[in-house]
Recover the amino acids of this structure.
């Protein structure tokens, strides 16, 4: 597997990965009805550095890296990661997280923070913990899960 910066010609593959996750509405606090253009505009927002994970020339994951805040908080990075459904369980998210930590460090970030990790996303929470993240906050009933109703979200953080 290799991870590289995303190119414009990767948008169809990125949409194939992020579209179903956004539509499911179980892990990202984004409008479930977003169109391809709206979702890609979010993923490729100004300030987002977008990467793709490839295996045998197939894109199997994507992530973005950005400053978590501007000004006095710009030294803390933030990322969003999505693995293709067919690649779940193959170490793609872990590889993207490790890669993002290296890129963030090289860009001069001093820490990384995940602002909103839905508590029902247990695989992600366990992975982030294995990658050195700690839960530093809990937001009660902050996420409206489409099947489970109101659930908590976590703020997770690690220094670089």
């Amino acid at each position: 597997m290799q991870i590289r910066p995303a190119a414009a010609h990767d948008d169809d593959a990125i949409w194939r990965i992020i579209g179903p996750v956004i539509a499911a509405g179980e892990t990202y606090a984004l409008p479930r009805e977003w169109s391809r253009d709206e979702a890609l505009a979010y993923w490729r927002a100004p300030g987002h550095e977008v990467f793709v994970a490839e295996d045998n020339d197939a894109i199997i994951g994507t992530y973005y890296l950005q400053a978590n805040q501007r000004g006095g908080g710009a030294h803390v990075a933030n990322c969003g990661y999505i693995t293709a459904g067919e690649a779940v369980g193959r170490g793609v998210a872990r590889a993207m997280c490790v890669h993002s930590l290296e890129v963030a460090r090289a860009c001069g970030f001093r820490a990384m923070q995940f602002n909103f990790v839905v508590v029902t996303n247990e695989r992600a929470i366990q992975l982030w913990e294995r990658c050195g993240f700690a839960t530093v906050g809990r937001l009660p009933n902050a996420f409206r899960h489409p099947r489970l109703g109101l659930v908590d979200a976590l703020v997770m953080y690690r220094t670089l």
About this structure: The mean pLDDT is 97.
